[in-house]
Task: structure prediction
Amino acid sequence: MDDMLYIATSAANQTMMAQAVNANNLANVSTTGFKADLLAFQSIPLDGQQISGRVYAMVEQNGVDLSPGPVTTTGSELDVAVSGEGWIAVQDADGSEAYTRSGSLRVTSTGALINGVGRPVLGNGGPIAIPPAEKIEIGDDGTISIRPEGQTPSALVVIDRIKLVNPDQNELIKSEDGLLRLQDGSIAVPDARVRLISGSLEMSNVNAVDAMVNMIALSRQFEAEVKLMKIAEEIDSASTQLMSI
Result:
């Protein structure tokens, strides 16, 4: 009974962890550029001095679903979506480089170009700064052009270019902040083949229906594991009564 209780307890604990990850995916179903986390259950032998006497359940974070989400048209001049494969380079809070598909950009009062969660967007020489302008245009290659204040409509000036990269997806890892980085900590090189769609945003790739079904399945799985713990307790009590005769 000890083995039965141990397996059921460890499985229930891991199911709660899986439910937390699934709930986080579901909570970000409307977050632009969000990539769903993937999990996998597996059984692991508990090694002893001689043999593996028990097996316990474990949930492993099995990577990230990097498939593209649906693209929606917004018409905003600062909204961009990556067309096909590729990533937008941004600066993390510690100054390092990270990558995202979230293209809801805006300009701060100091002229810094940032994405929806406040990360500075990187250009050819670092974070991009936008001078005072009456109009801002972002080309499909990431080129940023502005019409300076007081200039004629034809007076467009190229000021920078958004750094677009396309590293091997197998080399990318997702951090707790939702940004992706290269596993070895290096910096991806710009890729001129990556293209942007202006006036559009890529939405989350989380399927709300699948996430809801998964939530129900995990809840039922947790209930079954709790029942197994209760059965193990009842069997143990019955065994104790027999031994007392």
Notes: The two ends are 20 Å apart (CA to CA).
